[in-house]
Specification:
Oligomer: single chain
Radius of gyration: 14 Å
Number of helices: 3
Number of strands: 6
Helix content: 10-25%
Strand order of the largest sheet: 5-4-3-2-1-6
Number of domains: 1
Largest sheet: 6 strands, antiparallel
Distance between the termini: 18 Å
Structural class: alpha+beta
């Protein structure tokens, strides 16, 4: 029970501390670019497509999987079950992280939000 509350608290804290796009250069980045959101064409184009969506609960995170930089395309829905597609620096889908009602499979670590919907809203 405590673990469930801790996961929820961490999710709320991470979402509340996010802005539309603030890249933190201290992130480990194996993509050989300064700012993945601006410097990786496939990522920039994907974000533009997401921004045209009426959905306001999407966010994209950068993290680490097996020592490489990856990008997880996520939604905020604590009561949902869904698959989180994870892409490498080239834009190839290399993993599908499972999210089951508030608990993401921890295959990807060091997650930091790098983009989110304008007017981001997290729906429980």
């Amino acid at each position: 029970m405590f673990k469930k509350y801790l996961v929820c608290l961490l999710a709320v804290v991470s979402v509340m501390g996010c802005t539309d796009h603030t890249f933190e250069p201290q992130l480990s980045n194996t993509c050989s670019v300064q700012d993945p959101v601006e410097d990786l064409p496939w990522l920039r184009q994907t974000i533009e497509v997401y921004r045209q969506s009426p959905q306001k609960n999407w966010f994209i995170q950068q993290g680490t999987y097996k020592g490489q930089t990856v990008f997880a395309f996520n939604i905020c829905c604590a009561s949902c079950n869904y698959v989180i597609p994870v892409h490498n620096c080239s834009g190839e889908r290399i993993l599908e992280n499972i999210y089951v009602q508030g608990n993401a499979d921890p295959l990807v670590s060091d997650l930091v939000t790098i983009a989110q919907a304008e007017g981001f809203k997290c729906t429980p």
